[in-house]
Amino acid sequence: MLKMYASGVKDGKPVKLVILGLSFKNLEKLKEGRPIKIMGDTIGLTSDVEFLIFSGETEQSMHKEMQQFVGPDTEVYIDPRLK
Q: 34 pLDDT band (50/70/90 cuts)?
């Protein structure tokens, strides 16, 4: 897996960019149901940032899979374009 973090300026505004390049071996692991975790400090962010990459057959199946991890105190942000 290739992991990079960059910051710069786009259209006059500061931006932060996280780049994750998945190898075919990584993709096979995802297809086997083995998620990939990345801690922020491995790419120059803080250690309180964690990325979890997983896959599923459909968005609906992934939604069902993640429901078990959402509790009453979980803060969830859903992009308004998906509603």
A: very high
